[in-house]
Amino acid sequence: MSTQSSVTDVAPEPLSPQLVVRTTLLGTVLDDDPAALLALLPRTAPLAWVRRGDGLVAWGEVARVETTGPGRFADAEAVWASLRSRAVVRDDVKVPGTGPVAFGSFAFDDGSDQRSVLVVPRVVVGRRGSTAWITTITTTQTSAGSAPTLAPVPTLAHVLDDVDPVTSPGAVTYSRGAVADDDWTASVEEAVRRIRDGRLDKVVMARDVEARTEHPIDPRWLLTRLATAYTGCWTFSIDGMVGATPELLVRSEKGLVTSRVLAGTIRRTGGEEADLARAAKLAHSSKDLEEHEYAVASVAEALAPYCQSLNVPETPFVLHLPNVLHLASDVTGVLCTSGTPVAGNLTSTTSTASAAAPVVGGHGVAPSSLSLAAALHPTAAVCGTPTAVANDLIRELEGMDRARYAGPVGWVGGDGDGEWGIALRSASLDPEDDRAARLFAGCGVVAASDPASELAETEAKLEPMRLALSTTPLP
Ligand SMILES: C=C(O[C@H]1C=CC=C(C(=O)O)[C@@H]1O)C(=O)O
Cα 424–65–369 angle (5° rounding)? Predict the structure, then answer.
């Protein structure tokens, strides 16, 4: 399988662009509206990673890496490592997300010919509680002897492109995706058979749905609705991949890692009492607990070699989203730095994984958040157990290319810290047709799965994107 990568500078520049980065505090106070940051975005190629009003929005492009194949993460990481190591940075704020930042969205499957991307934006606006900032990034060429000059202190007024009004997509029609419903349930039935035969324990089967809109899709319409309705999720937009994921693959911040693992789902009814009864049912469902256990184990196993201590909860909690309830576990750990373990300030209450510190890139430094995302992907929340057998079964039975659905999506900073979600509850906007999008949803299949119920579960998981595309007032 081939691995290709390319770096494109927007204004053609010599081969060795150097980033010149300036971060300054934003004088303006951004309000608590979950969509306040999103209101700054231009219509074209908006970049976003926001949750409860905090996060990053960005636009413009000073560098882009496109990769495919099994080396897609390593190739993107290598380019980012080179860019960040040579960047000239003045950061007056110094919180996660300030300084140099790249946004990425990666294909699910090693075998996909669909691109993975890492984009370095021209402008980033970020917010973390009461702190808000602007970062501007430009490129200069590395030429011997001359030191790049820093741009003047940016202000919001200087960096805001013309923000044209957000427009509605109008009426939407849906049609089947790659596989008809009956064929999809037949595939789930076959997957259940293979599991009962003992060939694997779990596989996640997904499907897609095509949406066609009356008017061109303005990604900001989708983002604003997602961020407002799904406040507990991470609303993202990167190179046409848009969604609001409840699942955090990994956050790496100052030596601490966190992963929110989800697997096991029940639809909500809308009634508070009935939902509480459903939450109790979910928390005791052996089928869902089994699905969840595989997902947690896959994350713990993947993180263990990088951590000097890992806290893996024994029992999941129930996460309430507007459309569904999920079994959820927050796995946390303290990263090792090669040869120099970080002083442990997290206690392992339930289980501890300790392992020799890995040699990461041979530089004696902790792995970047992007390397961690690559090591974790694909977890059993989106692939299955054992991973390779499940992945082969997905290729054999699913009948579609997931492209960037269920792949890592997020951002990485200049120090390697960052946040990566799993691109769920998402759609890919067609770059050739601005009125077309492909929506995705999947579900974990175990021995006790019922194909018709799994189809219904995918419908519940499609709800956030259907709501995002609609014009009905938000609840
Ligand atoms: C694969 C998806 O969800 C995963 C995350 C949470 C719960 C899941 C489940 O219960 O099957 C899935 O593992 C999706 O939303 O497309």
Answer: 55
Is 248 among the domain residues?
no
Which residue from 205, 260, 262, 445 has its CB within 8 A of the most atoms of ligand 1, so it is best to mutate? 262
Instruction: Tell me the pLDDT tens digit for each residue of 246-305.
Output: 999 999 999 999 999 999 999 999 899 999 999 999 999 999 999 999 999 999 999 999
Residue 341 one-letter amino acid: P
Ligand 1 touching residue 439 (CB < 6 A)? no
Pick the closest to residue 331 from 248, 425, 230 (CA basis). Answer: 248
* Cα 246 to ligand 1 centre (Å): 10
Ligand 1 mean position to 299 CA, how many Å? Answer: 15
What is the three-class DSSP state of 260? strand
What CATH number should be reported for the domain holding residue 197? 3.60.120.10
Domain that includes residue 315, residue range = 172-211+261-403+433-469
User: Is pLDDT of 216 > 50?
Assistant: yes
40 CA distance to ligand 1 middle (Å) = 31
- Assess if residue 132 is contained within a domain: no
Q: Which pLDDT belongs to residue 326? A: 98
Ligand 1 binding pocket includes 264 (Cβ within 6 Å): yes
User: Tokens 């492909």 identify what position?
Assistant: 438
- Which ipTM was obtained for this model? 0.99
CA distance 136 to 101: 10
Residue 353 lies in a domain: yes
Give the pTM.
0.92
Indicate if ligand 1 lies below 6 Å from the C-beta of 331.
no
